[in-house]
Structures are given as C-alpha cells and as structure tokens.
Amino acid sequence: MRRLLATNKTVTVVRVPKNDGASEPDLAFQAKVKDAQIRSYFYGGPSITQGVLSPFSIKVKFADLAVFRVGEAADTVAPSSALPIGFSRSVGETELLPIDLAGPRAAAELVNRVLAVPQAADDSGDEIAGSAVLGFVWVSAVDQAKGMVTLLSPMRGRLPRRTLLLGSVDWQDQ
Description:
Helix content is about 15%, strand content about 25%. It is an alpha+beta fold. It has two domains: about 25-55; about 55-170, Elongation Factor Tu (Ef-tu), domain 3. Strands 1-6-5-4-7-2-3 form a seven-stranded mixed β-sheet. The chain is globular.
C-alpha cells in the first residue's frame, strides 16, 4: 500500500496492529462466506431484508463470445526465480490469453466458474485488463456439440459485452 500511494502526498498509510484477541478465520468459514456472497449476488440475500432475485439463464454461441484469462494461473507456473539464468517469463501478469471454447479443455476450464464482464467496449488487451467490471456471470454448462455456453446472469437480456474474463473464482449452484 505504501508503495502504491507513495506519489500521493494527501494520503498517509498507517499500520494498525491486530488485536490480541483476533484470529484468522479458518478455510471452511471463508469458503462458506464466499459461497453465500456469490449466491446473494445471483439470487438475492435473505428474503426478509433484501427480497429474492431471479437470475436468468442465457445461452450464447461460441462465435458470439470471447473468453480470456489474465496471465497464467499462479499455481501452474514456476516462480521467476526457478527459470534458467538469462530467461524471462513469456506471459506477463496482465496479458490476456484467449480460451478456445471449441477446444477439449474448455468445459473443464469454464463450468462452475464465475466470469467478469468488463466495461471496456474495445477488445484490446490493455483496455480490458485495466477496465472496471460491469458485473459477473456464472457458467453452468458448455455444450461442445451445439457450440453453446449456458450462463447464469443476474440481469435479463443479452450480455452487454461479448468479452468475458476468467478469474479464479469457482462456485457450485446447489
């Protein structure tokens, strides 16, 4: 934080020590909270306080969709220190890598994943990687034979953009 805000002289970053009685939440609790937050995004929160939302299922042809992954997944690449001397990584952290929807691994990569809908109208990599997000969709199915992807969206109608970004968030609708 200090490094990011070093040029901004109006903001002072102060480290606040952790309370002695505070503890880190365990992984099971974090998973429950994540699942509850994603569910409330698509279906709404508790019916008493926020009402119930009805998400919409959208079927999109492969040709009408472009799905990208930002950089390579952190768990699939060796750290830079493990590369041979004189070599550098060929894929940058913010470089967009297209996902072949008709490929054999598309269903395994996309089903049960939450995808972001970027605000950028242009399909150029630099603009998409740095743009805000309009919302999120969840991939419920990939039909290779028909060339269709089934998405769950909190909003009725077509997707506002044809470009989607794959992140590391997965979720199972129960």
